[in-house]
Amino acid sequence: MITVRAYLISMVAVFLALGIGVVAGATFIDQLTVDALNNRIDRVERNLTAREAEQQRLQARLDESEAYAEESSVQLVTEQLRGVPTILVVERGVDDGAVGAARDLVSSAGADLSGIVWLEDDWRLDDDATRERLADILGSTDDDPAELRQAGWRAVGRLLGTRLPDPVGSEGASVEGSSTSTSTTVAADGLLAALADAGFVSWEPAEPDAPLPDGSEPRGRVLVVSGIDSELDGGALTPDLVRAFHATDVAMVVAEVATTDGERGGVIDAVREDDDVDRDVSTVDALDLAAGRVAAVLALRDLADGTTGHYGYADGASSVLPASSSS
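RESULT FIELD:
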C-alpha cells in the first residue's frame, strides 16, 4: 500500500530529477538545440527564397503570355462583328478594367457599339421606397420583389434586344411586364431614361453625348457581364436577369469576370446549369483574360446563325474559344 508520505517523496524526487535535467540541459545541451533550430530556420529561409524566385519567374512568363494574347486579340476578332448593333449590360461592382477591355475589343471587331448599361444595386429592391420607384416606372401593382425585378428586366430586354413597333398614338409603344398586373406607364423611348433618373441604371456611351437607347435601333446582340464582385448580391441575381432577357428573345452572351484571386465559375455555373436557357445562350467564364474577351466576341459573332457554346477554364466550359467559323 502506497502511503501519502511515500507519494510525496516520489513526487519530490521527480521534480528534483526534472530540475537537474533542466540545469544539465541549459549547461550542456541547450547550445546544440539552438544550433539545430538555427540550421532549420536557415534551410526554411533558403527554400522560401527559392520558391519566391520561382514564383516571380512563373509570373513573369504568365504576364508575357497574357501580353501576347492581349496584343494578338485584335487581329483575331477584326471584322468579326462588322456593323452588328451591340450593347453591354454590366452589373455594377465587377472590375472596370476587364469591362473596358471587353468594350474596346468589341469595338475593334467592328461592332456598332452603342455603349454600356450599368445595372446599379437598387435592382436588389431591398426596401419599400426602391420597389415603389420601380413599380411607378412600370405601372405595376405587384409588390413581390422578384416579380417586379423580372418585369423590369424583361422591359429592358425588349428595349435593347428588339426593334420596338412604331409608336401608338401620342403615348408610344408600351413594354409589357412579366405578369398581367404589370403594364408600362412610361413610353418605351423613355424607359431607360426613367430607370436612370430613378437610380436603377447608369449609361456609359461609346461615343461622347450618345443618347440612351430608345428602342428605335435595329435588333442587336447583348453582352451581359457579371461576377462574384457584383453589387447585385454577388451575381446571385444574374440567372434571373438572363432568364428575363431570354424570355424576350435577346441574343446574348453572358460573361463572368473572375475575382482578384482568380476564382471563376461561381456565377456562370448557375447559368450553364439552367436547362431553360443553356442551349440558347453562350457563356464565357474568363472575361478578365484576353482569351476570354476573344471568346466573348466570337460567341457574339456566332449568334448570327444560332450557334452557342460555353467557353473558358471553369468546370462546364467545353473549350477556351469557339471553333473558327465563317460569318
